[in-house]
Sequence to fold (96 residues):
Amino acid sequence: MAAKPTVYHVTPSGERAAAAGVKWQVEGREGRRVLHEPHRTQQEAIDSARGRAKEHMPAQVVVHGRDGHIRSAYTYGDAPAPDERGRRAGQPGGVF
Fold:
């Protein structure tokens, strides 16, 4: 049986954090450890999440827009079959 993938979500921070200059966060679970990592920009958060995903394969990074909808996703490690849109793992939009 394949290992359960680690999923990292890049999401906008709450209003309180945004007021302090932290506008984006990476959330996920690495084994029993819950990750909540603040970042000032979405790109910084994406870069951090992708780096962590490469260290904890199989893994997926799900990037959400300001409205909360999924903007893109990246998959690392054991690649699942292409999704209904024909995207493969590791390409933007490919999901588990």
In short: DSSP finds two helices and five strands in the chain. The CA atoms of residues 64 and 75 lie 15 Å apart. The radius of gyration is 13 Å. The beta strands are 6-12, 24-30, 33-39, 59-64, 70-76.
